[in-house]
Amino acid sequence: MDGGETFRALRGIRPDIRIILSSGYDQQDTVRHLAGPGPAGFIQKPYRSKELVATVRRVLEGSPERMAATVAIR
Question: Which DSSP string do the residues of the chain spell out, in sequence order?
Answer without folding.
Answer: --HHHHHHHHHHH-TT---EEEESS-HHHHHTT--SB--SEEEESS--HHHHHHHHHHHHTT-----B--S---
